[in-house]
Structures are given as structure tokens and as C-alpha cells.
Records
---
Amino acid sequence: MITVPEGTQLQAREFYGDVMELEEISGEHPRAALWFKIGDIELHVRQEPAGPLSDRHPAFEVESLDAAKLFLQKKGVAIAYSSEIDGRQRCFFRDPFGNRFELLEHLK
């Protein structure tokens, strides 16, 4: 689960559904959360009072990091980098609410 500031549920639905092209899971979810499908997992987005940015993040493995970065760049999403890890390439991005995400590709 990630959080977005109170009053931004419509923006969250637009970002995750339209910009990131995730399939929304309809239904009456606890605490009016939005649920999205990513492959065979779910991303739950819930409104909470705003707070400082955090480095906490989920990490998602992708088949092609270059393709993922190109997708994000075309959507106007800023990409950031961090320390290198042997055997994988990775990058980070934040959604409009400050949530941090890692994308990684294991090197063959």
C-alpha cells in the first residue's frame, strides 16, 4: 500500500489508471482505497494526511529497464538514480504524491 494526500483520490486514479495505464480493480475497498492490478500483484492506494517525503518504496522487476525508462520519460515522469547494486540495473521515480518506486532489471 502507498498513500496519497487527502483530497487527491481523483488525481491518484488519473495517474495510476491513465498515465501508468494500470487496470483498476473495482469494488468497495477498505478506507475508500483505490486498488490497481500490476501483473499478478495489487497496488493499494489510500488517502492519508500529507507528510514529508520518504525513501520507503516498493520495487518492481521489469524485463527491460530501458523500455520502462522510455515509457516514463514519454509520460513526463522524472527518473532518479541511486547507488549501484551488482547484478542489476535500477532507477527510481516518484508519483505526483511523493511516493517513491524502484524499477530494476536483473543483468543476465
---
Amino acid sequence: MPKIYFPDVQKIVYAGPDSTDPLTFKHYDPEALVEGKSMRDHLRFSASYWHAMVQGAADPFGGPTRPLPWTEASDPVQAARDTLDAMFEFLQKMDLGFWCFHDRDIAPELETLEATNAAFDEIVGLAEEKQRETGIKLLWGTANLFSHKRYMAGAGTSPCPEVFAHGAAQIKKALEATHRLGGAGYTFWGGREGYDTLLNTRLSAELGRFAKLLRLAVDHKRKIGFTGAFYIEPKPCEPTTFQYDNDAAACYAFLQHHGLEKEFSMNIEANHATLAGRAFEHELAYSAEHGILGSVDANRGDPMLGWDTDQFPTNLYDTTAAMGVILGMGGFTTGGLNFDARLRRQSVEPYDLFHAHIGGMDAFARGLKAAAKIRAEGRIEALVAERYRGWESELGRKIDAGEASLDSLFEHAVKADVGSAPAGRQERLENLLNEAI
């Protein structure tokens, strides 16, 4: 029998908005129906292995403060076994249906790649057993191509072909493990695929090799029969000065340039949008409207700090906007809401991990209900439709159909009397949003 790491915590259940028990859901009722589908199926919540089990609340200015008793075994492989036990205990008690991992989260890097892969295979086998026992599924897997010093200049974009080969080997194993565990997707986060200075960088060569690495992964995906989605996760900077996967638009342009746009969709992270100077809603809306929104890393960043704070999501405006976009595109297919979020440095008690996830799940449940209310009432959409109604005219239809020329538009403009564009009614729309929340 595995050791129990959270003996004082029972399974978290829905108790309603009047509950004063901090270890209950106030708004997330997994089986409650919204637009004909359960909250559980709408939200597809997942916990990230790296933050929940491995990250000890370290930050750029200090080491870990949070106890991780499951990592204390002197044998790193035994510590990995214990950590897996703790993770699945946590997932079950939080009633989370999914989990996500990097390869080096779940198994240690040992002296040789062969030994590392053997340890990884063992832990993947144990994870497969736990998934079968619990019914919990893998949302996505990925490879850590950024922590080891070999990746200080990137993996696919490294100036060293040996590093490129090692990164490719890690992707191969991580992709095969994801396939074995029935993962719904596989995520590519460059981590260090960028540059610190252009003085030592061959820009087009690095971008081309990064695309080659992605193409190799696509080929291997087909070879092994993996049918899950491939995601790119945009991030603009930190740790590099500039990341090639800067934001959703940059990623999409890169994929189109290299003929990969049909192979990948986006895994959008809220905190990365903040670092890029974009709104979370913008990154989601851009991706959804281009048919490339696959999954979401649910967290938030601090706009006053220029690094990845990875805080748990509690802003109801953000969660409402996010769920509005997700409902508008018809909901998730392979993706979900993964809590890529870590506890604060002073959150060192075992309960804090549960409080954090409860808060994030309740915040997105409230966002789901508010977004569904907005859609049902239709008042915001009616005002937007009114603003664009001019495009239903003969002139608008001709422009959209490509039947207008500069000459014909010039002739029309000479005869027309245009005073101003339609009213935006931003304040009215903001009030309607507030009323729904």
C-alpha cells in the first residue's frame, strides 16, 4: 500500500456558495449542467505535476520553502515512485480528471541517457497502472528541454547539433510515453528556443532547425500511431531576451511559413500573455477565431512583475472572458484547463495546495456560469451585431465578396456622406459584463 501524504484531507466535494468549509467547492459542481453539458466536461480540469509535486516554492531570489516529503528518499528513482503516489492521491482527493507532466518531472535524469530512459519507462508503467485504477487521464505530456545546462542555448535552436540530437531523443521518449498513457495531446514549449543577443545568433538558421525538430516529431507521431493533438505554447521572454514562440500570432505565422499549420494548435497560458503585453482574452480569441485554440494553462501573472509568477487564477473577469471564448468555439475537444500554477513562497502548509486548486476551480466555474448567462441573454451580442450591421448592406457585401475595386470605392465615397463610425458603447457593454458576473 502506498503511503498517505494528505491524511487529514478527504475528497473535496461541492457544498454550495454558503459553505464555510475551506475544503469544499462553493461553485464548481462537477455534474451540474451548463448549456446541456456537465461542468466537469466543460472545464476538463488538470493539475500540473511540476508545480503540484516538484516545485518547492523557489523563486529567482531564493531556494525552496515548501516541504515535499514525497521527494525525500535518497534513491532518486524511489523518490519518483513516492512522488507519483502523492500526485495520484492529490488528484483523487481534488476530483481532478486529468494531469500533465514533463518527462523530467516524473523521473530523474541519471548519469546516462540509457539509465534515465529506464527509470522513465518504469515510472510511466506505474502511472499507467494508477490511471487504470483511478480513471484519471493524461491531458498532455511534454519534454523538459530547458533545465539542463546542455540546453542553455535552446534545443532545436542550439548551435550544437549534439544538443539538437539529445533534444530529439527526449521528445521521442516523451511522445511515446504520452501515447502509452493515452494522452489527449502533447505540448511543445520551447523554454529556451530564442536568443539573448543577435550578436551571436543566426536567426533564420535557428528558426529553420526549430521547424525541422517539429517536423521530425510530426513524422514520429504518425509512425507510432499517436492520434492526440500537438500544441505550441507561446511565451515571449524570460529566461531568454526573445523567444521565437512569442505569442499566438507569431507562432501561427511561424507554423504557416514552414507548412506546419495543420499539425499544431495553441496551448495558451494566461501568464505568458501578460509577459507578451497581451490580454489573456486576446490570445484566446485570436487562437479560437483562427481555429487553433487547443488547450489552456490556467493561471495568472502579475502585470507589475516581468517574470513568470504562475499564480492561481482568481480574477473572475479573466475566467468569464476565457469561458466565453471557449463556449463560443464549441468547447474543448482534446484540451482542457491545466493549472500551470504554483503556490506562493509563504504557502508552506499541506492544505495550501488544496486551497489553491479549489479557488481556481471555483473561479472558472463562476466564469463558466457567467459566460453562459451572457450567451443566453444575448444582449452583448445584439449590441455587437448592431455595430457591424452596415456590413449587411450592398456595399458591405461587395467588399466582403471581393467584388469592390479602389475605383468603385472611390466613386461610392465621392457620393456618400459619412459622418462617423457606429458607436462602440464600451461602457454599456462593460456594465452588462459586470451584471453577469
---
Amino acid sequence: MTSQGIEAVFLETRNWGATGRFLRELGFTVDFETDHNSGQFSNGAGPYVFVVEVPPDHEPRTRLVLKVQDTARRPGDGVDIVSEFEQTHYGTQEMTVNDPDGRPWILQAPGKE
């Protein structure tokens, strides 16, 4: 399986408003916001940043999302698959894999039609 590069950075935060202001101060613009303290920011042609607020008892995480096209091809034996490709509620398919240090990475493909 070959990725097509970084699609996005998925950023969890305890304070949606503060994180949004921080990103805007760094030159990002809001692509869209949801009604549940999340939204997408972009800055130029690079990956977008998707921010979601998590409860105070949840440790915020940052995950990289890699773009892939072919969900039929599986990663090689050296990749720890945490979850297989699944359709998301926002229209894509995602697989979670761990890198050698145990950090999660998301492989994101177009949704099923």
C-alpha cells in the first residue's frame, strides 16, 4: 500500500475556542465549523487541520492522516493494523495503524458509493 502523502492533521483539544484563535493567529482560515466544537482549518495548499474538542478527562491527541486510494491493498507485514477500513459518518473510509513506537496513524480513503 502506498500513501499519497499527508492529508490532514487531526488535533484534539480541551478548548475549541482557544485552539481556533491560535490557528487563526498562525495564518489558518476556518473552512467550516460544526455545532459540536469541531471544525477544519487550512493554510495554503498543505494538509488541513481538523480540530475537535474532547472532554476534560480525555488526554488530547494529535494524529496524522495519510491519503490512500485503494482500500483493497493492505499494508505490509511490518505495519501494526489496529482497525480495518471502515466507513465514517463524514463520508470517507479509515484504517488505523500504529507506527513502531505505538503512535496511531490514520489511512483515509474515499468513501464507498
---
Amino acid sequence: MEKLKSIIWVFIAILSIQGGATFAKQLFPAIGPEATTFLRVWISALLLLAVYRPWKQGLSRKAIFAVVLYGMSLGAMNLLFYLALERIPLGVAVALEFVGPLSVALFASRKARDFLWALLAAAGIILILPHTDFSQSIDLLGVLFALAAGVCWGLYIIFAKKVGEHIIGGKATALGMFVAALTVTPTSLSHVHFAELDGKIWMMAFFVAILSSALPYSLEMMALRSIPEKTFGVLMSLEPAFAALMGLLFLSENLNGTQWLAIFCVMAASAGSSLTAHNVTPPPQT
């Protein structure tokens, strides 16, 4: 039952993140990806700190070290992904970013069937990418940003599990988001012109913070206490498919047959992984 709840939390987190990404991309023409990242992460951090008040919990040195690594990877992932999203389409950016979680799923695998699910998800990600004149149609700097974000995403999954061994979900997310906000500040603050931010921008930034950070990362931290990194990583391979569907529903982006096949692959991989995972032991609460 606990495992089923965790899987549902992951699905809700995926929907929330992709909805937030559509809002965020609409902010780029007005304030740019750096300022959007700054507002998103700081608003999320302040909200989570107010809700969970993590300063009431004593932290060991190991816990502090884990939170710092978790937060730094989280902040870098957010900034790099938005820099990629400015240059390449949402579905492509999400697919390329999956180098991280797929690597975690692959390296954590211990059984042949888990390896096959990871390969099926990888096939879906490859299929969802454009294959005609790739070098001419895709901004290569955007591709590099997306791949770098993927590396940070993989680290985030690993460090989130470590943090979960020391701190209960919501408090860990709040502390990690605060570290993430500090991480992005040096490179993003100069891009924020507060006098030019009107009510509409603040409202959109607030929705981006809720949908892209505060809600999904809290859900993911809770889920990671009940499912291993490999299962979490393959479940999250639904992200490219959801990104493509968001493009269809909200951006009028039509999907071709290859892209529908890609959606089937990643959904089948996620379903297979969730059905065949056994003996999931939550980390100890300390």
C-alpha cells in the first residue's frame, strides 16, 4: 500500500512539474531564464520553510552535508534546465535531461528484468527526439545545458535518498530548496530587475514555484522513502511523454507516430518497473 501511494505521488509530481514548465517558458520573454529560476527557487524555499519549519529539528553533520549536496544539485538542475528550455522545445529538453535518472536506474539495477525496463525507457527517450537534420534544427548549446541538467538530476536522486535517511520528507525538501536558492543566487541575481516585475509576473512566478518546485519535490521526497532509486528513476521516465502531451494540449504541438511509440515505450517501462519492484524497505527515520 505504501509503495502504491508513492507511485501516485510520483505521477502527481510529474503532472505538476510539466504544468510549471509551461508557465515558466511564458516568463522567459519578459524576464529570462535566470530571473525565472531565481524567483521560482526563492519563492519555493520561503514557502517550504514557512510550512515545515525545519529549524526545529536538530541536524547532525552528516545530515547537513547531505542537505548541502542535495540542495546544490537541485539548484544547478533548475538553472541549467531553464537555460536549455530557452533554446530547445520542452519535450526535447526533458528527454535529453533523462541521461541522469536513466543512469541512476541502470547503475542501481540488480536484476535482468530491471535492466530491460531501463532499456525500454531509453528507447522511448531516443524515439521522442527529432531525427531529421538534428544539428541544424536543435540549438547545440541548449542540448548541452539539458544534458548537464540531467547529470544534476541524477545527483539529486542519489542525494535526496541520502537526505531521506536523516530528515523526514518535508523538512528535508525545505532545507534543500533553501540551499538551492543560495546556489542559484550568484549567477541569477544580476538578471532580476525587481522594479520591472509587475503583478502578472509575480503571480506567474508564484504558480511556477508551486507547480515546479514546492509541490512536486515534497511529493518526490516522500516517494523516495518507499521506493528505491532505480524504480524512481524509471517511473520518472514518464516525464518526456507528459511534456509532449502538454505541448499537444496547451501549445498545439502535433505528435507523429514515432512520438506516440515513444510515449508507449516510456509508459510501458514505468508500469513494468512498478509491477516488478519488490522488497522495498524505507530508510530509517532519525
